[in-house]
Amino acid sequence: MSAQAHVLPAGFGAGATSGHAHAAALTEEPIDHGVAKRIVVAYGFWIFLISDIILFAALFATYAVLTNATAGGPSGRELFDLRIVAVETGCLLLSTVFCGIAGIGAQARHARLYYGAMAATFVLGATFVAIELHEFATMIGEGAGPSRSAFLSAFFALIGCHGMHVSAGLLWLLTMVAQVYAKGWRADILRRLLCFALFWHTLDIIWVALFSLVYLVGVAA
Amino acid sequence: MNENVPDQHGFPGDVAPGDEIQRHDIPQAIRGYLIGLGLATLLTCVSFYIARSTLVWEPSIPIALSVLAIAQMGVHLVFFLHITSGPDNVNNVMALAFGLLIVMLLVFGSLWIMTHLEHNVMPMERLMQMQR
């Protein structure tokens, strides 16, 4: 069993349910290929996340092509404030670490660690969204809204899509806290929590590409 | 059950949500994330520094920033998403590799085609002058 269960990553968690799989093989469980359900779920969700990364790549390609299409309007160098971007980056990086710590809390069935880390994740994520909304509002107020130029349309589509993902992730985070609170450490809820953690970490990876290649290159170039 | 799970992977700090761990292993599990945080912070600071300074030859700044971004994504993949090169990880790594192939085709293909288009098509201003 253990040899087969390790087809999928240690990180995605093989081994812990090997006892279950043994039990399932002995009873009349239909077809059990020796792979824990959690591993299959994580793999499926990983495929979805990769498709999400491809979606962002399409938006990013659009942005990269249109960077110079400012139609006489402001360019990135005039619009981007790196101090704001630095704060946003710090918020998201810390929130991703707290999300990982919340996962550890869940694995150890340590409720206080789980709730505390999830709260920190939420506050940092919400701060990120609030700062981004403020940045958007300032830009639109200065007449640099998405309708000003092709460059700004692409910018708002790309950064806005990421911001919407983070906002959706915040809602998901709240439902995960509520599910653990209401139903406890059930196996299916822990699997959802694993998917949420993967989602949140992936959003930070996408933000790394965005702050480096949109904001920093935009200001430097 | 499974008191020995963290040890199974050889590296107790490398445990993702889903594996059960004991309470006394919590500090060690958190340490993995803190190492990731340290590396990511370092790379982020270097990126922000390079973008503003004159230390790096100016035309190479976008390339330097891309390299730093890719390095930081690697740090996130290893320390936060726990994607490693181990034999356990083959399926996830293959899916990721295919995803990266598509991403590269999309981004560089678009840039390549559109730069050539810009080269070969008459600029909009001249086109408008001719229509007058």
Give an overview in words.
The complex is a heterodimer of chains A (221) and B (132). Chain A is mainly α and 221 residues long. Chain A folds into 2 domains: 35 residues, no CATH class; 173 residues, Cytochrome c oxidase, subunit III, four-helix bundle (Four Helix Bundle (Hemerythrin (Met), subunit A)), CATH 1.20.120. In chain A, 78% of the residues lie in helices and 0% in strands. Chain A has 8 helices and no strands. In chain A, helix 3 runs antiparallel to helix 7, helix 3 runs parallel beside helix 8 and helix 5 runs antiparallel to helix 8. The longest helix of chain A has 34 residues. The termini of chain A are far apart. Chain B has 132 residues and is mainly alpha-helical. Chain B has 2 domains: 84 residues; 48 residues. In chain B, 67% of the residues lie in helices and 0% in strands. Chain B is built from 5 helices and no strands. In chain B, helix 2 packs antiparallel against helix 3. The termini of chain B are far apart. In chain B, 30% of the residues are buried. Chains A and B meet through helix 3, helix 5 and helix 8 of A and helix 2, helix 3 and helix 4 of B.
Number of DSSP-assigned strands of chain A: 0
State the helical fraction of chain A. over 70%
Structural class of chain A: mainly alpha
Q: Shape of chain A, please?
A: elongated
Query: What is the chain-wise order of helices and strands of chain A?
Result: HHHHHHHH
Radius of gyration of chain A: 21 Å
Strand fraction of chain B equals under 5%
Supply the CATH class of the largest domain in chain A: Mainly Alpha
| CATH architecture verdict of the largest domain in chain A | Up-down Bundle
- Alpha carbon gap, first and last residue of chain A: 55 Å
By CATH, the superfamily of the largest domain in chain A comes out as Cytochrome c oxidase, subunit III, four-helix bundle
Mean pLDDT of chain B: 82
What is the helix tally of chain B? 5
Helix content of chain B: 55-70%
What's the story with the biggest beta sheet of chain B? none
Secondary-structure element string of chain B? HHHHH
Amount of beta strand of chain A: under 5%
The radius of gyration over CA of chain B amounts to 23 Å
Pick out the low-confidence regions of chain B.
Answer: 1-18
Structural class of chain B: mainly alpha
Domain count of chain A, please report it. Answer: 2
